[in-house]
Amino acid sequence: MQNNMNRLASVPDIPAEQFTKRPHDNRSTENSKAVFTSENQSGSRKALPLLGFISGCAIVGLAVTMTAKDAMIYLNFPGLLVVIGGTLSAVLVSNPFQRLMRLKKSLTDAFFGREENGLDLKEIANLSKLYRLGDLRQLEQHLLKVNSPFLKEGMQLLVDGTDSEGLITTLEWRIQQSQDHKHQEAAILRQMASAAPAFGMVGTLLGLVNMLASMDGSDFSQLGFNMAVALITTFYGVVLANLIFKPYALILENRVESATELFGLELKAIELISENRNPTYIKEMLRSLCTSDQLVSHR
User: pTM for this structure?
Assistant: First the structure.
């Protein structure tokens, strides 16, 4: 986050006149076309993880079907109990309940919730105009319609008369707090990715011990059952770690990086508004700092 903040803070001051539109300047049209594709790109980003998960399950299932006489032999409840139960127990022991609830909410938002709102240049320009006019009452009314909670909070602090230094410090602290929470949630999934293969090995040891203990008898079916438990638990642990826990951890980490970049852009916008900069200057400055998929489209 600090690198992003330093990059935004080091942006040079450019005269607003340089941002005035020229008769033959097609940059705005090109940017608008790029912005219109952002919603489709967001939908694709949300669909890809689900598609990858389904593809992974299908590949594993196909391999099981093609190599086994009876695919049901891969369904072993004692092995599942050891791997899943052990992994969940390790997580419950080492993490507070509140953090686990945050993880549940973050995963739900990642796959079923709305995509993170992008940077709305039109909205920021309107806020800048109202602030420059000194119409604080109208500005507060407009803030009720702002979609971004971070932008809304920052502008409300500005309306309440918070000094520039205190405003920036507060908002930077909020960004850091949000980033820390998300990294903690991703760390839980990484912990699960480490614990699942480990408990798979625990199941393997249990199966081998039971198999060796039953070798002095004549019940070969019990011998085969214990051997199956020994092998299948390692299979469960590896699949869960590499098909679910690690990819989901990466999804959360990618989302927090995207959110941090967006917060940094909104913080820069609030800083420029507090300096009473021209709305056109603010729009073009922010447009130069972000990519098209970070912008909200207005059709």
Answer: 0.73
